[in-house]
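In response to a reviewer's request, we include the raw inputs and outputs for one of the modeled complexes. The two entities were modeled together in a single run.
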Amino acid sequence: MSETGQLPAGFELLEPFVEAWAIGGTANRAARRSTSTPNEREAFFTAAGPVLDTALDYLDGRSLDAFSPADQRLMNLMLSLAHIALAVEIQGPDETKSAPWRDRMQISRSSADQARHA
Amino acid sequence: MNATSTFQRIPQEDLAWLGTDPIPAEAYYDPAYFERERRAVFLKSWIHVAHACELPAAGSFIRRDLEFANASLLIIRGRDGRIRAFHNVCPHRGTQLVEEAEGRQTKFSCPYHMWTFGTDGALISAPDFEAFHLDKQDCSLPQVALGECGGMLFVNFDPAAQPLREWLGEYVDQLEKMPVARATAFSEYTYEIAANWKLTYDNFQENYHLRFIHPRSGGAGIGGDNQFGYPASMGFSGPHRTQRIWSNPAPELKPFQRAASMRGVQALAKRGLLDLPYGRDYLAFFPNLFIIGTPTQPFSHTVYPIAADRSRGVVRVYWAGEEANSSERFAREYSLAQIRDIHAEDIAMIERGQRGLASGALSHIHFQTMEALCRHLYVAVDERVRAYVLSVGEAA
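The model returned the following structure tokens for the whole complex.
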């Protein structure tokens, strides 16, 4: 299992979400939120939401500039979760309606991106 | 009284000095009024353009294009550590020097004829310069006044402008103690909107709309005996103004929202950023900037005018120090996405307002007492527009 795993050991539950949600770049994550379906968002939030603290505790034990590719994928999953949690938990039924307005707010800089390019 | 009964509404009579008359609607859509505003307000005021953290080292530069002045500015940190603003214009024949949005270099050469300038804007060399009948010291990049306060950089196109700190007045101390003054980095999003700059800016100066436009995203700011989320206090100083955002004693937070906040709060506590003063304060600097001191989401919002019915908004959330760990990285991402969601909800209403006003159907609009900050902005703008009209003898 772990030989083909794309995430650190212990996070196998999130493997099915790597392809869709382990996304680099804040603007890309925000864009993915807007193109995703309600079912995709719901499934990701249901699976990843309860893992937030475990995942961040694990990642906090590692230096940000010494991530393995698997660590980086887990980080990117959690960063996508930040966007998707807002869609599912806060916006709820308004998410589809608000997406086009939100897309007009173009993210030109983010903390995560700056660190990556530093 | 019950435990959540904490809200004291600001008495009407405290704000009566601002007047109660309806406000002429044309100020929000008429191109002629906009043109007077551009000259009387925007070309005569200190306008926020950048943050000092964007220019970390000698030779760091940014280019800022400002539609209201039809200008491109080149803002450079010199070898002497000073930050200066220049028109991005070669004094030879006007060619724009720099196309890059930002970078770092020791000198700036015009691609057309290779006139080359130092980080202080002085002409270093120009090929075959002897063939001009000029002195080099008369060929520096044209400078624009630049000032800094609390890390925030402002420019002023008026050569006779009063010093920045004098202009900012009594709110200087507050600004210098806000998180923005400690920022070393920021996240940013920008938007274009089909609406007047005041109509856009005013949306963010009143909470009257919160419960209708942000029933889900703005829930934490409304509640108990303050169903509109009105401010706890307001203050006015010259053309600037402030309000203290009401602290909801029992904010309704969703489970994930709470977990996400906790991740950020721990990092902020370690940095000593949770107990800064002015954490609930909103500072509005005339004409088009406001800054919020909320520790988890300290942000600035600037609305740049483009035309009577078009504006550009820039929102920046400020961060002190590099991300210490993944929790802080996550918290910053969540914080940015959260405030962006809220602002996105406003855009539709603002554009709807502009379309309504542009029809000319209304001669006046109305501000209630709890929209006093909007009224104060109009009063400050209109005073300047009137003085300008008198000074140039233009038909009003």
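As requested, we also summarize the result in words. Chain A touches chain B at residues 26, 29-30, 45, 49, 52-53, 56, 59-60, 62, 64, 75, 78-79, 82-83, 85-86, 89-92, 94, 98, 101-102, 104-112, 114-115, 118 (CB under 8 Å). The mean pLDDT of chain A is 94.
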